[in-house]
Automatic annotation (TrEMBL), chain A:
Name of protein: Cytochrome b561 bacterial/Ni-hydrogenase domain-containing protein
UniProt xrefs under SUPFAM superfamilies: Transmembrane di-heme cytochromes
Membrane topology per record: Multi-pass membrane protein
Keyword Transmembrane helix: yes
Species per Swiss-Prot/TrEMBL record: Paenibacillus sabinae T27
Domain of life of the source: Bacteria
Spans through the membrane: 7-27, 47-65, 85-107, 113-137
UniProtKB/TrEMBL annotation, chain B:
Alphabetized UniProt keyword annotations: Membrane, Transmembrane, Transmembrane helix
UniProt key word Transmembrane helix: yes
Keyword match Membrane: yes
Transmembrane segments: 12-34, 70-93
Origin species: Paenibacillus sabinae T27
Highest taxon above the source species: Bacteria
Name recorded for this polypeptide: Uncharacterized protein
Amino acid sequence: MKFDFILHWLWAIVFSILALSGIAMAGAKYGWVMQYDIATADIVHRLAAVVYVLLTLIIIIYEMIRILRRDKTKKPWLVFGPSGYGLFTFITTLIFIVTGAMIWLFMDSSHAVTAFALWIHDKLTYLAVASVIWHIYMKSHALKWPKKKAQKGR
Amino acid sequence: MWMKKNRFKLMVWMVTTSFFFAFAAILISMFRYGPTEQETMSFMMGMMKAMETSLMGLSMQVKEDANVQWLVYESVQFALPLLAISIAGGVYVRCRRKV
């Protein structure tokens, strides 16, 4: 199995967990997503965020190794890219990480920083989830269920 | 081909469906009435519980621990030069190799 393929789907799973646990914490209107169990949502969100940052580092290191080796082979499953949706994902990921770190670090010390970072984190989530839906639509051929092989004897 | 195997397709369907659920949850929450008083109370109680029992509470304890704070400070002292070297190395490689 290809490394970029594994990274892509690990990324998708972790982002899905982050989106669902994050939505539950977005406000009283959204709490029903996780039955108002904010404590669990918080733990899940923070643990998934650590994996998310690690995956980001792995992908960046993988890209750097490819540059050093002058590897120009196409990696269709790679999460980040120099243009298109790969670039959008890269930029949004960096903003998610920076604002997430700001929320985590300044939650108790600076309400202004936390509020600003939360606003960006929150609005970017809606944009990112909508873009993922678009991404799924564009790559919907991956959803096609494999056809059964022709029965013997026909 | 391994990508056309049923178990792979099943995973694709499950992961993609979760995004549709997330999107639907956002839309439903945005455009519905409320929140009611009961929902607000449930949310606030959930937040209070998170403050006590989750990593949020743990991170607050870390902030009060002088030893951990010293460790974080020392780590940052190491991390910042490493980060600067990494960025400089990346820029050098990017410019030099012209990939």
